[in-house]
Write a structure and sequence with these properties.
- It is a single chain.
- The protein is 30% helix and 28% strand.
- It is α/β, with parallel strands linked by helices.
- The two termini are 27 Å apart.
- 12% of the residues are buried.
Length: 94
């Protein structure tokens, strides 16, 4: 494979990864909490800061979309939320 062919293959692989991940909507912390308030028992996946991200990251789903936010401080989540701590949250850079 030539250099140009390898670059095209890499670009296609990245595009396919983004398509497979679905729609991820980044929102502010306040909006994330409002979305959680619309759900009876929201499922929240979060990760703690790492050397690279240095922020808490949170994801939840609502009406077919995945909502994502990040915060310098831990967000106080509603007591009714089901919380899963992950080692890392990855989102495609768009």
């Amino acid at each position: 494979m030539t250099g140009g062919g390898a670059a095209a293959a890499a670009a296609a692989a990245i595009a396919n990864a983004i398509k497979a991940s679905g729609a991820i909507v980044e929102v502010h912390e306040e909006d994330f909490l409002l979305i959680l308030g619309k759900t009876e028992r929201p499922l929240v996946v979060f990760s703690t800061p790492s050397f690279w991200s240095r922020k808490y990251q949170y994801m939840t789903s609502y009406q077919g979309f995945v909502f994502y936010t990040k915060a310098k401080e831990m967000i106080h989540l509603p007591g009714r939320a089901e919380i899963i701590q992950s080692a890392k949250i990855w989102t495609p850079n768009t």
